[in-house]
Amino acid sequence: MGKRIPTYEVITFGCQMNDHDSEVMAGMLEAMGYEPAASTDEADVIMINTCCVRETAENKIYGLLGRLASLKNKKRHLIIGIAGCMTQQPEVARKIKNRFPHVDLILGTHNLHRLPDLLSRVRENRERLVEVWEQAGQVMENLPIRRASNVKAWVNITYGCNNFCTYCIVPYVRGRERSRKPEDILNEIRQLAQEGYREVTLLGQNVNSYGKDLPGKYNFANLLREVDQIPGLWRIRFTTSHPRDFTQELIDTIARCTHVCEHIHLPVQAGSNRILKMMNRGYNRDYYFDLVERIRQAIPGVAITTDIMVGFPGETEEDFAHTMELVERVRFDSAFMFVYNPRPGTPAARFPEQVPDEVKSKRIQELIARQNEITLEYNRSFIGRVEQVLVEGESKTNPEMISGRTRTNRLVIFPGSGDLAGQLVNVTITGARLTHLEGNLEATVGANFSDGR
Questions:
Q1: Alpha carbon distance 335, 333 (integer Å)
Q2: In this predicted model, what pLDDT tens digit does every residue of 220-277 receive, in sequence order?
Q3: Contact (CB, 8 A) for 201 and 20
Q4: Crossing angle, helix 182-194 and helix 220-227, to 10 degrees?
Q5: Which residue in 54, 93, 270, 406 has the most C-beta neighbors within 10 A?
Q6: At CA 97, angle to CA 94 and CA 102, rounded to 5?
Q7: Tens of pLDDT along 3-26?
Q8: DSSP single-letter state for residue 203
Q9: Nearest residue to 231 (alpha-carbon basis) of 448, 443, 429, 17
Q10: Percentages of the chain per state (helix, strand, coil), in multiples of 5
């Protein structure tokens, strides 16, 4: 009987950046000889990749750590590790170490590449390790990656953030902004295209400021133009964009590129100039209105999505009314809407006039209700249209259906075979829900199309 192969599970909380970091963790674990576990209970190593942007995520992570204690009691050889944004905060790392003695390994965002060495030490010496670097080092290239999809891929172009919005913990846990070299990004994407990946999403806390720390005048628009020329790549997306840095050059570049999709995620956060200033966002509502208008004029059919925060310290009924008015005027295709909650270490956590929870709850319900109406109106307008969909595979909610996305990033669910994954197909839209479109397969576009729009 052969030697049993050890198994792992990576549990992820948070944004696309964390999703990508988890793919790197999985890649490093597999390079060490681990295989994916069939379930959490069967894993020999469990890595938790954390988020600290929202208090709700932190609470879920603490609850998960508590539940894993019983599993550790049953499986003494089990190694439990935790990484990511939460642990980058020294006080949180100490809390986890003291409150959860069954956690064997704690590391941060800056030393993710150290996982194999640290895990080997824990495994061989049965010692608890805490290693969280205060400062980020150089960008580490060529780390192994186990990608979650074989159709689309995340590609980091920057790490960290220089914006220091007063509510945001990201610059403190991800470090200052660091751009990858263009040649490293382009080589990675060329390799992905050669391996059959059809879509890439360029990732950064603020992709629009890409290249500001590099020599010369190479910027995000330059990068998009070069990525657009890579053979075999059908779709290019990017997230997230900061409105302040969304230049006319970038708008014109997106309009001219063949494969850059007509979807822009443009977080506005608030509709009140007073609140935007307190947030240190670097723009006002008139600038945002003008930017949206210029984008829509240059890119016909573009979908604009956003993030909106309710209940920022000092937000009055008038401030909230300005946000509701902005939503009515812009009419976002969809929005991620959330209430403000204080993040220790950020300036806004110390601001006076914290908004009561019951007021936040009332306002967020009103905002969600109206934005959902707008989103559903948009989605219903697609009924009867034929949309080009990149098939991603079986639907997560119905194994008898397949799913994919339009260029405007709308999820489409329709009957079909899983072997269509990675192909472009035409789908006639027959129904619309709040979260997705429904349709019927018409034809396969195939790999030989030229424009893709």
A1: 7
A2: 999 999 999 999 999 999 999 999 999 999 999 999 999 999 999 999 999 999 999 9
A3: no
A4: 20
A5: 270
A6: 170
A7: 789 999 999 998 888 899 999 999
A8: E
A9: 448
A10: 40, 20, 40
